[in-house]
UniProtKB/TrEMBL annotation:
The lineage of its organism: Bacteria, Bacillati, Actinomycetota, Actinomycetes, Pseudonocardiales. It comes from Amycolatopsis magusensis. InterPro entries: F420H2_bilvrd_red/Heme_oxyg, Pyridox_Oxase_N, Split_barrel_FMN-bd. Keywords: Oxidoreductase. This is General stress protein 26. Residues 24-114 form the Pyridoxamine 5'-phosphate oxidase N-terminal domain.
């Protein structure tokens, strides 16, 4: 993203005197987190939530999944989703929720950069083949990669407690 989002502290969910968490701090959490919870919706409207690794790159969150998996089928029908990360602590940390739309990424150059991030951060050695990730030595296992462009990001700071809403463009 070329510009920073617009931020607004939600006063009814924030302690008096607390301040907005700088966008750079939110981006740090997105960049450094290893695990996220992806929420999608099944065709019949039931929610589907799974943990998975994701990478923050160029203002978007990226994740991969097998094309046959429930989350991929859900995104095919409805690309809107939510990715959540943070801590399980009540009195410290920053929880971040990214609402947006997932689109399959096929750009070989970006996929190569993402494969390097997966390797460096998680020791997961993906290769890029035909616009997807593949496992080395198992060319039959392909994983489409999705990029989620944020429409809205919520950050929940603790100690002091505060909620900040970040919006992008017309969202």
């Amino acid at each position: 993203m070329a510009t920073e989002p617009t931020s607004r502290q939600v006063s009814e969910f924030s302690e008096p005197g607390s301040t907005v968490v700088p966008w750079a701090e939110v981006e740090r959490v997105l960049r450094e987190s290893e695990m996220f919870w992806l929420s999608t919706v099944r065709r019949d409207g039931r929610p589907h939530v799974v943990p998975l690794p994701a990478m923050w790159l160029d203002g978007r969150l990226h994740f991969c999944t097998g094309a046959h998996e429930q989350k991929a089928r859900n995104l095919e029908a409805n690309p809107r989703c939510v990715l959540t990360t943070g801590t399980n602590s009540y009195r410290s940390g920053l929880d971040v929720i990214v609402e947006g739309t997932a689109a399959q990424l096929r750009d070989e150059k970006t996929l190569t950069v993402l494969a390097e991030l997966w390797r460096d951060k998680l020791d997961w050695p993906f290769e890029v083949a035909d616009g997807q990730f593949s496992d080395p030595g198992n060319d039959d296992h392909r994983a489409p990669v999705y990029a989620v462009t944020p429409a809205k990001v919520l950050a929940f700071g603790k100690a002091p407690y505060r909620q900040i809403r970040y919006t992008f463009g017309d969202s």
